[in-house]
Structures are given as C-alpha cells and as structure tokens.
Design brief:
The complex is a heterodimer of chains A (632) and B (173). The two termini of chain A are 51 Å apart. Chain A is of the alpha+beta class and 632 residues long. Chain A is 38% helix and 24% strand. In chain A, strands 1, 2, 3, 4, 10 and 11 form a six-stranded mixed beta sheet that branches. Among the domains of chain A are: 198 residues, ATPase, nucleotide binding domain (Nucleotidyltransferase, domain 5, 2-Layer Sandwich); 114 residues, Substrate Binding Domain Of DNAk, Chain A, domain 1 (Sandwich), CATH 2.60.34; 89 residues, Substrate Binding Domain Of Dnak, Chain:A, Domain 2 (Up-down Bundle), CATH 1.20.1270. Chain A has 17 helices and 25 strands. Chain B is mainly alpha-helical and 173 residues long. Helices cover 75% and strands 0% of the residues of chain B. Chain B contains seven helices and no strands. In chain B, helix 4 packs antiparallel against helix 7 and helix 5 runs antiparallel to helix 6. The N and C termini of chain B lie far apart (42 Å). Chains A and B meet through helix 9, strand 18, helix 13 and helix 16 of A and helix 2 and helix 3 of B.
C-alpha cells in the first residue's frame, strides 16, 4: 500500500539495496529460471548443472501412505513405470474444464476426477490434484533454485505465459504462483519476453516477428521496437498446438510401422512416446532414424525418414503459417515490412518449421539465442527492471489483449466489448437494458473469443446483477464495465445507473480458484504449516505498513509543501506516527486496518502526484512542438 | 485523478483532424514511459491502481486520436455535436451502399480471397476520400456537412468489418 515512489532518471541503486528478481518460463515440457547478475542475464542451473527443469511432477505415496511429491528429472524418470501418477504437460490443462479436454491425449493419459464444473482435477496416488497445484510444485522447485543461487528469498518474479492464453489460463497461472508463495511482478507474454532478449541484445529497431512454437502452445506476435519501447502490434496463435503434437503424430506413425494391431500397455505407450520425442530430435539433423521397443519377449524395431515425419506434420506447420498471416493482416502490414523474424521454442528446431517460416517471410529467421532459454532470459531482464534495480531503464513493454472480450446477448450471440489486439490496460463500458416490465435481475455472461456464436467462444464467467428497481422494460440502464489490467487479467462489474441504485460485482473466471480455495491450499501445503502461515501474515502486514509509511514520508518531503495544505500535511504525518506505533505490535488485523486507513487518507495526495507526473512527461517540448502551426 | 483535459490537451496538440501520427505516437510513448503500471510495480496497491487508471486513460486517448473515424466523432463532440441514432442519408449514398453490399456477397461467393482483398482495398480508398472531405469541412466549420461524412465513414467501416469477416470465413480462421 505504498505511495508512489518516483525515481528520478540517473539515480543509481545502492548495491546493497539490489533486489533478487528472476524470470520464470513455466513451459509445457520444460521450465527455467533466469536472473540478471552483475549485468549478465543467465539461466540458473541446478546442482548438477542443468538449466532445464522437466515440467513433470510425480505424486507417490510411501509405505505409511504419506504423499511424496517429486519434481523434474526424478519425476520424469518415473513416467514409464508409473504413468498415471506422473503429471507432464500440466500447462495444457491450466484453466480448462473436463468437457473441453474430452478426447485429448491428456484425457487418455490421466485419471480425471469426475467434477461437475470448474477446472479439471487429476486422481493420483497422493490424492487428487489440480493443474494449478502441479504448476505450483514446479514454480516452488525453480524458486528454491533461485533463492539458493541468489543467496536469499526472491523479492519478485516475472512469469511468462503464451500470448494466446485466455483469461482463465492467466488467472490459473497467477493462482499457481500465489500457491508457491511467489511475489509476481508481472505476467509477461512469451513472445514479448523473447523480443526483449533479442531487442536488448542487438539494439535493433523496427518490426520483429516472434514465431514461438513450444511444447504445447503456439504464438506469433508482431512487435515494433523503438528506443527501448516494445510495442506489440498484433498477436495470434493456438493455445493447444505445439511440439507435443509432432511427437504424437510421430508416435502414430511408429505404431503403424511396428504392429498396427498390438494393444500397448500404458507404460509401453509412454515409452513409445519418449522414443518418438527422441526420433523427432534426431530427425532435425539426420535423414533417417532407427528405433526399438522391448518389453519381456517383445522386441520391435523400425525406422522413420525425415520425409515421412515431415509429411505427417505438414498440416500442423501450415496451420502456424496461417496464424502468422492473420497477425500480419490484423496489423495491416505485408510480410515484406518485417525487419527480422525470431524463432523461439524447442519445436522450431524442426527443419520443416524453419523452412516454412523462411519461405513465408522471405528471410532467414534468427536463432542465435538458444530457443529454449530466450523466453526466460527476456523475463529476467523485465523482472530486473520491474523490481527497481534499474531506475533509469528506458525499457517499456506495451502489450495487447490477445482475444476479444464480450458478453452474451439475445439469441446466443456475443457482443464484443474489447476487440483483440487492443493495447492494455484498457477499460470499456457498455449499456444494456431490461426486456421485461419489472425485471429485477439480469444475467451477465462474460465471453472470450472471436466467433459470433456463444457456443463457439469461451465462457469466462457468469454472474447475476440483482436488485434492479422495478421499471418498465427498457427503462433500466445496466452499465457493464470490463477492465483489463497490465497482466492481461479481466475484471467485470455491472451496475444499474439510471436510478442511482447501483449493485456491482467483480468476477473471477469460472475455471479459476476462489480466494478461499487458495487460502485452504496454502494452509494445507507443507511449506506453510499453520504457525508458519500466521508468522508470515504478521510479517507481510508489517512490511506493507512500513512500505507505506516510508513512501509517504519521502513523497511528503518531495511534494508535500507544493501540493498540500498545512492541515492535510499535518494529518498525514500524524497518520504515519500512528501506523508506526500499531505496526510495532502483533495484531495483524489492526495493522491491516490502520494501513488501509492511511492509504485511503493519502489517496488524494497520491493522485495529485500522479497528475503532476503526467504533466511532466511532456514538459521540455519547445513551444513549436506544443503548438503546431495552424493549418489553413 | 484529473481527467478533465480533452485528449488533444493531454497530448499537447491543437485539435485538428489532420494529426501527425508519428508525433502522436511519440508523445503517447513518452507519457506511457512515465505512467505505465510497470513503473510502479511493488509500490503497493494504491500506486498500481492509480497508474493503471492513468495508463488506461492514455491508451483510450491514443486509440481515439489515432483512428480516423473515432477522431472525427471526437472532434465533433468537442463542438457539442453528437451523432444521431438513425440519421437520414442521401438516397444516392444508400444506393451505392446497396451496390457495394451486393459486390461483397459476390466476392465471397467467388471463393477467392484475392477478390475480397481487392474489394477491401476499394473500400479503403473510398474511406480515405470521405475522411479527406471531412477534414476540409471540419476546418471550415461546416459541421453539419462534416457530420454527414461521419455517417458515411461509419457505413464504410461496417462494410469493411463484414468484408473482413467474409475473408475470415473463407480462410477458415
């Protein structure tokens, strides 16, 4: 609850004040953590020198039935022997419901808990778990690596998400971070992160296309770089298309070659999938690859050529090029305007992908930063800036909303309130009315997607606005407001404005977790035993209080006399003293209440300073700049 | 928060229909550099909320001034001229629209994306002409006639959206 701290350009950060910040690429197949240390951005390694952490979590039970959770390579090793309890590619399940996943690979692979609504749940030997919890385990492991390498708990992280992630998926990622006890500075789109890594690396200006084909998701973004500003012009892709799909296509091919009729056991199936992954990687450099599969008396061998593989995946690659074409069209630009094309994600090592990208854009794509690491590196650079280690950094990311947002209207149609590729943060409002006399409630159904029919879009949330005063049909004015913040997260509120009677509600996506669920999960997790949680809450409350008083003191010193009356100023100083006294005690509720009180009391002052900041932004223009010559 | 300035004042530009897009974009970035929520991360809910409100306002102002039609409507609203819901338009213009609709239908039926592309280019050309006419009428304070051009631009924009949607269907997006 701090007041605005405005750092003047050129002001250096005291080296002892340097904060521990990291960028985390929470990937479908692998995850990484990176940080800026002594001016160098690097991925952080585990004790045996690996940067990549397989995004795999194994849920087991020991002899006494207590659950045992392993993460990463150790979990991956159990994938063939214990496939049902080894959760891989959980990112593909984030923010997804049971119905949406019917018929997918994941549905065949895991035991889903039959739930009526909400996010999918997985049944494991250690009880049921959710994709959010699986992701939290991966984040915890990475954060631990971070704090061990950087010498203390992390002050903040930037977590990357596919640009094409919808609101439910973003919210689920945020929830996972909260569950892992991480302070999220920002959710950053993966292609934007890659652009940061390349842009800051080369200092190039102009139009850059980021083609990002990861394990499970595909994104393509067009950005304009100029003097440290990364402006996303358009973005597109497919949140469920990636290198994993290549593996599955290859696996089908291999299966057909081996013994088409043979029914494979789950463990043999999983091994075949791992063989497929190996074959895919080998085919990036070799023309053919041999493979074999043995179990008991069974001994099978076969070979695959690159041409066969390319034939099997050609339509998937074409699909990505179609998305790229659409992004260019959305931006109103031709392929020839693009200055550079950057490849991101392990699946871009496939030669067919490189060839098709090169042929579409007419220029050789850049790959000189390791496509597996580039996203984490860019996220680390952003984290370093956001946490405050570089107060004079010129860098600014201006991102867009990836998918249109709207409301269900009469006849099962979607009315769009905010179009895709609108710069964020953004707020839009629309007025609706009642269609029946005396109607006292209205159902608000929030949708995301590009299609016209409700059935073809994603349902994000439903809520009811109640207490509309009795009026004739069409007389009520229901104002629905959509606000998307800088993380790309949506909140919606509705109110009846005609009579001054208002009722508003802020929604969370239907596939998200409620605050109570998160609190419950935090309490039951090992890292936050009951006492631990209470001590932590006190610490956090004190920190908030301290942050506010410190910032307010410095703001008063800077601008207090210029912007405030003596009376108001004195009041704020008294508020600071009062909060400082309370913060010395251990009454969490009281500290929070006093912090909130002072925060509210200082709100007008903070707003005045923000207004002043806006005025200063354009100061320094010459008079000619400010007043263009009158046109005749 | 003081959002009482109009969008031109916010960017320190004089209110004209012709705006220097590069200059507008430059000033937009200059403002966002100072006020974007990224500059206030970790400084508490209050700072982030205020920065988000300002950044939202600046985005809205930029979106309004950088779009031809929205800018035209905004300029008229500054003259206290608001759009009517069901304006009366000249019979000639309406006939033209019907013809254009028909050629869009034909273009979609042709099944050739290039035919729709050509149609879109034609509409874009028409829109530019109408916009130019709006600019001249507005500067000479012929607001009623300028308003007619806005209605025409609205028609053309809807037609453009239909053409894009037809293209989407054709390309299977």
């Amino acid at each position: 609850m701090a007041l605005i701290q405005i750092t003047e350009p050129g002001q250096a950060v005291d080296p002892h004040q340097r904060k521990r910040a990291a960028g985390i690429d929470l990937g479908t197949t692998n995850s990484l953590i990176a940080s800026v240390r002594e001016g160098q951005t690097e991925t952080l390694q585990d004790v045996v020198g690996n940067s990549l952490l397989p995004s795999v979590v194994h849920y087991g039970a020991d002899k006494n039935g207590a659950s045992e959770i392993t993460v990463g390579a150790a979990a991956l090793a159990k994938a063939t022997t214990d496939p049902m309890n080894t959760i891989a590619s959980a990112k593909r399940l984030l923010g997804r419901g049971l119905a949406e996943l019917a018929g997918t690979e994941a549905a065949e692979q895991y035991a889903f808990v039959p739930v009526q609504e909400g996010m999918v749940q997985l049944q494991t030997a250690a009880g049921s778990t959710s994709p959010v919890q699986v992701s939290a385990e991966i984040l915890k492991t990475l954060a631990q690596r971070g704090s061990e390498t950087l010498g203390g708990e992390l002050d903040g992280v930037v977590i990357t998400v596919p640009a094409y992630f919808d609101d439910a998926q973003r919210q689920a990622t945020r929830d996972a971070a909260e569950l892992a006890g991480l302070q999220v500075l920002r959710l950053l789109n993966e292609p934007t992160a890659a652009a940061v890594a390349y842009g800051l690396d080369s200092g190039d200006e102009g139009l850059t296309v980021i083609y990002d084909l990861g394990g499970g998701t595909f994104d393509v973004s067009l950005l304009r770089l100029s003097r440290g500003v990364f402006e996303v012009l358009a973005t597109g892709g497919n949140a469920s298309l990636g290198g994993d799909d290549f593996d599955h296509r290859l696996m089908s091919l291999m299966r057909a070659k081996l013994t088409p009729d043979l029914v494979l056991s789950p463990s043999l199936n999983r091994r075949l999938l791992m063989q497929a992954r190996f074959c895919k990687e080998t085919l990036s450099t070799e023309a053919t690859v041999n493979f074999e599969l043995t179990e008991g008396d069974l001994h099978l061998t076969g070979s695959i050529s690159r041409a066969e593989f390319e034939d099997a995946i050609a339509d998937l690659v074409d699909e990505t090029i179609r998305s790229a074409r659409r992004v260019m069209r959305d931006a109103g630009l031709g392929e020839e305007a693009v200055d550079q094309v950057v490849l991101v994600g392990g699946a871009t090592r496939v030669p067919l992908v490189r060839a098709k990208v090169e042929s579409y854009f007419g220029k050789a794509p850049l790959t000189h930063i390791d496509p597996d690491r580039v996203v984490a590196l860019g996220a680390a650079m952003q984290a370093d800036v956001l946490v405050g280690n570089k107060p004079d950094a010129e860098m600014l990311l201006l991102d867009v909303l990836p998918l249109s947002l709207g409301l269900e209207t009469m006849g099962g149609l979607v009315e769009k309130l905010i179009a895709r590729n609108t710069p964020i943060p953004v707020q839009r409002a629309q007025e609706f009315t009642t269609f029946k006399d005396g109607q006292s409630a209205m159902l608000i159904h929030v949708m995301q997607g590009e299609r016209e029919q409700v059935a073809d879009c994603r349902s994000l949330a439903r809520f009811e606005l109640k207490g509309i005063p009795a009026m004739v049909a069409g007389a009520a004015k229901i104002r629905v407001v959509f606000q998307v913040d800088a993380d790309g997260l949506l909140s919606v509120s509705a109110s009846e404005t005609g009579t001054g009677v208002t009722a508003a509600v802020v929604v969370k996506p239907s596939y998200g977790l409620s605050d109570q669920e998160i609190t419950q999960m935090l309490k039951s997790s090992f890292a936050h035993a009951q006492e631990d949680a209470e001590a932590r809450m006190l610490l956090e409350a004190r920190l908030d209080a301290e942050q506010l008083t410190e910032a307010l003191r410095s703001a008063l010193a800077q601008d207090g006399e210029a912007l405030l009356s003596d009376e108001v100023r004195l009041g704020l100083f008294q508020g600071i003293d009062q909060l400082a006294q309370v913060a010395g005690g251990s009454d969490v509720a009281l500290i929070k209440a006093e912090t909130e009180k002072l925060s509210q009391a200082s709100d007008p002052f903070a707003a005045l300073r923000m207004d002043q900041e806006v005025r200063r932004a354009l100061a320094g223009h010459t008079l000619d700049d400010v007043l263009p010559v009158e046109s005749s | 928060m003081n959002f009482s300035q109009n969008f031109f004042e916010l960017f320190q530009l004089t209110p004209h229909f012709d705006v220097d897009e590069a200059e507008l974009s430059e000033r937009f970035q200059r403002l966002q550099r100072r006020i974007h929520p990224d500059r206030f991360v970790g400084q508490g809910a209050q700072a982030e909320r205020l920065a988000t409100q300002w950044a939202t306002h600046i985005n809205e102002a930029f979106a309004t001034l950088s779009d031809r039609l929205r800018r035209a409507i905004y300029l008229l609203s500054m003259q206290a001229i608001d759009l009517e819901e069901n304006p009366s338009l000249s019979g000639e213009f309406l006939m033209e629209q019907i013809t254009l609709r028909e050629s869009l239908d034909a273009a979609e039926k042709s099944g050739d994306p290039q035919v729709i592309e050509d149609f879109i280019a034609e509409i874009e050309g028409d829109s530019e002409q109408v916009a130019k006419a709006f600019g001249e009428l507005f500067e000479s304070k012929a607001y009623d006639e300028a308003l007619q051009r806005v209605y025409q631009l609205q028609f053309l924009k809807k037609l453009m959206q239909s053409a894009r949607a037809a293209e989407d269907r054709l390309l299977g997006y």
